[in-house]
Amino acid sequence: MTSPLLPVFARTDLSFEKGEGAWLHGRDGERYLDFGAGIAVNALGHAHPHLVKALTEQAGKVWHTSNLFRIPEGERLAQRLVDNTFADVVFFSNSGAEANEAAIKMARKYHAAKGQPERFRIVTFEGAFHGRTLATIAAGGQAKYLEGFGPKVEGFDQVPVEDLNALKAAIGPETAALMIEPIQGEGGIRTVSNAFLRELRALCDSHGLLLIFDEIQTGVGRTGKLFAYEWTGVTPDIMSVAKGIGGGFPLGACLATAEAAQGMTAGTHGTTFGGNPLAMAVGNAVLDVILAPGFLKEVERKGLLLKQRLAELKDRHPGIIAEVRGQGLMMGLRTVVPNTGFIAAARAQKLLVIGAGDNVARLLPPLIIGDAEISEAVNRIEAACEALEAEQASAAQRGAVQ
Ligand SMILES: *Cc1c(COP(=O)(O)O)cnc(C)c1O
Domains in the chain, start-ordered, CATH in brackets? Predict the structure, then answer.
């Protein structure tokens, strides 16, 4: 099947006509259990009644006015984010990469506003993913995303995670900020230790640097707190958010303290679509559900249940699963077999999971997932493991016959 779409995605030949909670109805007539949630985006699953209502009601009123005018729904969403985080101010974007662009520009402008424009460099970490714009591929530092796109945007220095000496050596008179994901998502659900994050905070404080957390994947309840930094005892100065905050509607945000944001005065940054009334209505509806009493405690409990069940699977299938890692409903299975083969085997059991670096299959179910659906997913993963083991056994037998 040929397609007029730019072939930058290696798409699975599968599409869906309807979604309900954690389930997707494929056009192939099959029902899939969705443990990918559109890459951690559908935080409340598919067709959540509260989100459908908020979007359709807003659609009947006003879609877009531009940021030339006040947008009350946006002021309300920003206030709720401020009330529930370290931040004092919020900039809304359409995507994660744009939220990070705002964060990067803000960190540079902070020093420029303080009379030190030479401080523009940002230290980032190996295995990072910050988006696909020119600046964010430079921040992410992955050769596979940079190759062929001309000179890398200047001003990013990368060091290994947990390597304090390398980090100290990378900080110089031009350094403006440190930027990190508390748990690397695309990199393979790799958790950064609280001790290392504390070192980052201390270095920022002693060198006058800003600490940027990219919580685009870890945020909005994914780990069982509204934001993952709440687990760490470390507070950033700037934080990027996207994915779950729109529940499937394109929405990102850059949150910051008033101190960090001081350079971002009228006219210094902008967006046409960012924070439009449709996006703001949905963002507020997402927060209605996630901030309801008990919701995040349930995410935490379900995350522990899932992790426990996955650990049991790993013990039963050591030839397939090497490691279970992650927090809350952000889980990774590092597989012994190629992760692509594992993901295909899960799909054959009508379970959708997604790949990540370090040969990991990511499990990112919607936060509204039920215990019975967690059990169902574990059973399907077990069936996938058994199918892969049967393949291994028959391959070994063919080897022995030859
Ligand atoms: C997905 C992601 C991004 C990029 O978000 P887009 O909306 O695709 O631009 C950036 N950082 C992290 C940690 C992400 O998971």
Answer: 16-34+295-401 (3.90.1150.10), 49-290 (3.40.640.10)
